[in-house]
Amino acid sequence: MNKPQLIIKAIKEKLLPLTEKKAAEGNHLFGGIVLDRQSCRVITAGSNNRQENPIYHGEIDTIQRFFADRNHPDPASCLFVASHDPCPMCISAISWAGFHEIWVLFGYDDVKRKFGMPVDLMMYQELFASEGASDENSFFRKYYLKKEAAKQKNAAELLKEIAEIEARYDRIPVQYFRYPGM
After folding, report:
1. What is the pLDDT, as a whole number, of residue 162?
2. pLDDT confidence of 182, banded at 50, 70, 90?
3. Could you write out the DSSP letters of every residue in the chain?
4. What's the pTM?
5. Which domain holds residue 37?
6. What digits encode the pLDDT tens for the residues 35-54?
7. Which CATH number goes with the domain that contains 81?
C-alpha cells in the first residue's frame, strides 16, 4: 500500500468514526490523527471539542492526546493528518509540537465552500495579511491528500475512496455554535 492509501485507511477507520461521534455531541467536524511516518500506524486520533472550550479544535485535541502518552514517539518521526486545512492557531500548535510532515484532506477552499466556514481564511487575512500558511517552510511540509493520491498508480481507486469519505463528511450534521468574540 502507498502512503496516500494508508492515510485514507486511517481516516476511514479511526478519524471519521470519531468525528461522527463528536459531531453528534454538538462539536465540529475538524479532527486529526498522528501516524507513524514509516508504517502509517495510527498513534492517536482527536476531534473538535468546542462544547468544552472554543479553542479545543480537532488538531489541538489530537496534539494533547499525543503528548498525554508519556511514551509517545518523537513528533518529527510522525505524520500529522488534519481533516481540514488547519486554522492559524492549529497550524502554529502543530509546528510548535514538532510535527514536520502534515497531510490535509480538505483544503481551505473546501472549508469555505463545502463547509461554509470562511473564518479560518478570514483569520489569516485579518491577523497576518496572508491567504493561509505556506505549504513548505522551515517548520513543516504540507501535503494535500487529493493531490498526492492523484499521482499514484492506483489514483482512480484512491480518488474514489476520498470521494466516499467526502460524502460521509457531507452527511454529518453540524449544530450551529457561536464562538465567543465573533
Report:
1. 97
2. low
3. --HHHHHHHHIIIIIHHHHHHHHHTT--S-EEEEEETTT--EEEEEE--TTT-TT--HHHHHHHHHHHSTTPPPGGGEEEEEEEPPPHHHHHHHHHHT--EEEEEE-HHHHHHTT--THHHHHHHHHHSSSS--SBSSS-EEEEHHHHHHTSTTHHHHHHHHHHHHHHHHTS-------TT-
4. 0.93
5. 3-170
6. 999 999 999 999 999 888 88
7. 3.40.140.10
